[in-house]
Amino acid sequence: MTAEEAKRTLRVFALAFVLVAISNVLKPLQLGGEQTGFVFFGQRLSGTANLITGPLFGLYLLVYAWGIWHLKRFALPLGHAYATYVVLNLILFYANNPMPPGIGYRIFSFVYAFVALGVAGGAAVLLTRHKELLT
User: Fold this and answer.
1) Is pTM, for the whole model, over 0.85?
2) In this structure, what DSSP letter does residue 99 have?
3) Alpha helices in 1-135 (DSSP H)
4) Averaged pLDDT, 35-44
5) Cα separations in angstroms, 74 against 14, 78, 81, 103, 116
6) Other Cβ atoms closer than 10 A to 1
7) Cα angle: 11, vertex 135, 4; to 5 degrees
8) CB-hemisphere CA count at 13 Å for 67?
9) Angle 103-129/75-96 helices, nearest 10 degrees?
């Protein structure tokens, strides 16, 4: 991948993180019902914990997205930390929460995990492979 292709791809990742950040900031509103609380290390939060943690993670992701967009060096450790968190969060969530019956939830869970790991890990890997672009 050329440097220009990497820059374009990183900008797509940055936009994806902005969308996830917005989603996290809105978690306390629980617009989708009780199942929309922020999940922190495998536990779905509610109440005050959800009110604080969702927006804080949203802010983290906005800073990360800004760092990616502007090719800032600080985005690299933020990306590795976030990718690690996503892996742990998925493992702990699926280990601690029984899967409802039916194939639909299993398919959704697989697709969600694939996208979450792909975006979080892909951005971290791309930043690492092209750290010469970072200032």
Assistant:
1) yes
2) P
3) 3-26, 47-69, 75-96, 103-129
4) 87
5) 14, 7, 11, 41, 21
6) 11
7) 40
8) 19
9) 160
